[in-house]
Amino acid sequence: MIRQPTQTTWRDRVALAWACIAAIALFALFRETTFDDPFITYRYAANLASGVGFVYNPGERVLSTTAPLYALALAPLAAAGLPLPVVSNLISCLSLGAGSLALWRMGRVAEQLVAGAIAALLFPLSPFLVPILGAETVSCIALTLWGLVAAWSGRPTLAALLLASATLTRGDAALAVAIAGLALAVRWGWRPALTFGAVCGLTVAPFLLASWWYYGAPLPATLGAKRSQAHIPGSRGYVQGLRDYLQGMAVQPLFWPTVGLTPLGLMKAVRCDSPLALTVAWGLLHALAYSLLGVTSYFWYYAVVFTGLLAAVALGAELLARWLRRHVGPRASLGTVAALTLVVLAGHLGNLRSITQTPQPRMALYREAGVWLRANTPPDARVGTLEIGVIGFSSGRPMVDFAGLIQPDVARILAEGGDYAAAARYAIARYHPTYLVNQEAAFALISTDATLQAKCAKVFALPDPRFTTPMIIYRCGWP
After folding, report:
1. With 90 as the cut, is the pLDDT of residue 230 above it?
2. pTM for the full model?
């Protein structure tokens, strides 16, 4: 049995300092970074805080957030009047710091200091994690990593509470529950594993039962919607998206050490002599599960996979360092591994620099549209659009979603092979939104439908830097 470290060393203090510095620096640089989907969760939190209920649209009990526990945690902050997008970005940055510490701890408990240090250094700067700041995924990963540390260290109750919380934050962690249970059984015996399973079940079950009672289903409607979107003609599936990301890394020289070290790390992970190996297994299982689910490709779906890949890189570096130490000496070993790590670090920093220099006109535009709707429409006016997150959160109006995230019947049109235009026309005919928000240059809807042209008039135009034509808000009249 591997001896568990009990005393704090200078290396631990350095790891803690790095985690804090990274979290603070990331928040300073990326506090405005966002994308549309997290705003669905923010709206659940805001509606619960305002007394409307744990719903997206008032009076419509549909679970459209994949992060119920995260939304519940944000609700008191919303009630306090704090800006949820900024607060959520702060939580994500702190979670990156916490995840960095967990990865260092993984190396520390397995006496794999090289692997732990490299994983801790690179994790908070991952180009696959920083772009999803504000979403629940980063917090889910941090909770899961610490849950795996607890399981490896023989602390079943703590591991269960952490991993159950991670699963309720985002269902992706359910795969790590199985991995942790198996690790507990192998390393510590069946009694701790059974304790772990019981605590997990008792923690998760009330949430599932409450969801079943309140929404009529225990799982988010968005899962079916994302699977339906994969049926849209020309849609890129999860496997194709993963292949594209891996091929993109393979042609970038700064990521070549990643490509070279990953196979070594996978070989070492097979020995399962470290909680880092459990992280690798989680990433591989996650890729397999999403492939079997047949969902469409969204960039935030790959965060867990590339966290596992990072753990494999760290294990590969550990294996290489030990081989070099035996054959060419410790000094050459340290220099080689440090040089490879710095190359990968340069690749990460280059990607982060490009993020800071990439404008986000779409998010600002959606926010402006939502603000206009809040100021110029009745509180019960329904608004239809393709991306509901920012517009819905900023406007506070009941939304009609052309992608089927909050109206599951709309997703069935996509599952049957219809495109977004067919789904939009169905949603409009079914729900009669009073207002439509659309950029015709990106999604030709009103301009290609004579009926909508007759019923919907332009009431406001928002200059759109992405196109030569503005985004339009229409007011529609229905019998």
Report:
1. no
2. 0.95
